[in-house]
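hey m, so remember when u said the tokens were messed up on ur end? i reran from scratch. heres the input so u can diff it against urs
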Amino acid sequence: YDKLDVDAATELGILVANVPDYCLEEVSDHTMALILACTRRIVQLNEIARRGDWKPQPDPYLGSEVWPKMSRLRGQTLGLIGLGRIAQALVPKAKGFGLRIIANDPYIDPGIFREFGVEQVQLDQLLAQSHVVSVHVPLTPETTHLLGLEQFKKMKPTACLINTARGPIVDHDALYTALTQGLISMAAFDVTEPEPIPPDSPLLKLDNFIVTAHSASASPLSFAELPPRPAEEVIRVVKGEWPIGLLNPQVKEKYRRKWGQA
């Protein structure tokens, strides 16, 4: 819904709704896959094997220059920027790998942090402590370029950055600098700025940058769920009910006056 002017719709008395629990499993699965791709260097190892650079390994570190950069997840810290529905779906999956989880989200009730067993921290603390940082906030004026060079300098040089939220939340020029100057180790994005990512983007020349084509939500099951879910919201409104995923509840009084509904 970041393509809609919600404020203008509110001024005109128009309800704006979404389906907030759509594709939670797919996106959280994809996020976990990108975490594994980064920490286990899956893409780089695939390329090494395909080009025949598969050396015998009497000493495991002779196999590849990539191997010393690989890490085990158990005992490491995952920092979630945002603890909304997708991040909440990710938490039990990440805990299954033994990750300690911390998060920053000033808009989520502290009780939610306790419910999911996630430690609430400030953003600077999250950046400094996390081995993996994963972005899960909506795109707003407040979050545009939330992560820039200043934030990358606060991260571990061995850290991985995951973004399955929205591309403009991360300053891509700063990301390139961070990846090429060793401020962070790797990044894996499903979203970019702009989309699609330009073929001549310098990020695409880096072997420590992974990108997928804004496909985290995709599966036959999620595609099958997509048409009926918004239709159910429309039916609620036609029946005189409020949509479950109403984004601008402040419009209710104006909507009542406009349409004469209680």
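this time it looks ok to me. The domain at 24-52+69-220 is CATH 3.40.50.720 (Rossmann fold). if urs says something different then somethings off w ur setup not the seq
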